[in-house]
Amino acid sequence: MRTAIEEAKQVRMGERSPLDLVEEALRRIDAVDGRVRAWVEVDRSRALLTARQRYDGSRHGTAVGELIGVPVGIKDIIDVDGLPTRAGAPEFAHYTPQRAATVVERLRQEGAIILGKTATTQFAYSDPAPTRNPWDLERTPGGSSSGSAAAVAAGMAHVALGTQTVGSVLRPAAYCGVVGLKATHGRVSTAGVIPLAWSLDHVGVFARCVADAALTLEVIAGHDPADPRSSEAPVPPMAPSGRKPPRLALLRGFWEARASDEIARHIEDVAVRLASSGATIADVEAPFSIEDVLAISQPVMRFEAARYHRDAFAKHAGEYAPGIRGLIEAGLRTSEQEYEAARARQEDLRAAITALLEGHDALLLPVAPSPAPPGLQSTGDPAFCAPASTAGLPAISLPSGLSAERLPLAVQLIGRAFEEPSLLDAAAWVEARLGFDERPPL
Fold this sequence. Notes:
Elements: H1 4-12, H2 18-36, E1 39-42, H3 44-59, E2 71-75, H4 102-109, E3 113-118, H5 146-153, E4 159-164, H6 170-176, E5 179-182, E6 202-207, H7 210-220, E7 247-252, H8 261-276, E8 280-285, H9 290-316, H10 322-332, H11 336-356, E9 362-366, H12 386-391, E10 395-402, E11 408-414, H13 420-434
Parallel strand pairs: 2-3, 2-4, 7-8, 7-9
Antiparallel strand pairs: 1-3, 4-6, 5-6, 5-10, 9-11, 10-11
Helix pairs in contact: 2-3, 9-10, 9-11
């Protein structure tokens, strides 16, 4: 299966048509999405019209853009002009924006074609979306970026955007056997994205390989005057070489008590495999527990969620799903003092993780305590993703094998703030050594 980078290169060279790429994606959606339910709206007519316009450009030698012709899915809390933003919520919350989110505009500027909106849990929290895992339709795909992960895994889009507040990109990527990437907090604009908690929210990328994720990140990253939290740090080239064996710090004392035996064995096996291929692996002891991290992220998330939803919640509390309703109610009871204390501790956590990275390229740890759990009533446990999200550090989920039940397994790498190229270099090297090329049985 060709990568997005390869497809775009062939379009630029006149060897492939953007119309072919979009029609292939639409045929795949027609074939499998009735079972997977990754999409809430497929913008078929506009995608085909845009593809024809891109095709005309390729015929006349004017086709440009790093993602020219590449079909992309957009999580339905991210605005696309002319399409309803539903946020997985009841009708009271729906609206149709006239302007697209900054990240969508940046994709378009590089020639990507927006296929439509992918399913999300309600307001990007814990109440499950209707999406099913392409590897086993009776298991969760994870959340909150459920549809984006499933769409890429099932071959319905080359790339998709999601968001992560705790574990909403990395965890569904792990469950669905694709690459999930989130950058440093502030590296990517969230203008035009419904917030869950603005101090924790990241726009992230789903792709089939590290190189595609890196290119997409480079396209959407950069300062945005419309987002006061976006960083002015220059965006470096993100394309990974993957040639140099990385120095990895295997995190200890954080995840073991919560991980299944299968996940624990898999992480140890991956560490041995990578070391035998030339990576340097060193154990580092976590100076924080899962409870410590959640004690920081939870007050921030519930306080900010309550502030964003307060007016709508006063009118429509009964229409909110149980999970997000409980979060908002808890946030309305959270004092500003408790919130500010938690915000201050975010920097302490970033400093602690950065200290662990001294002399290393990335931290190595699991993404989730188990493969995708059975049932559709939960989106799984995000706790192992909480350190990177809470500290605002870049992190990536890499598919790394299959479980005894032939479900995807994954490893997580965490890097230093605004050093995504180093993280991506390490990730590309690890990806090549693990050689995961399995696809769901759809």
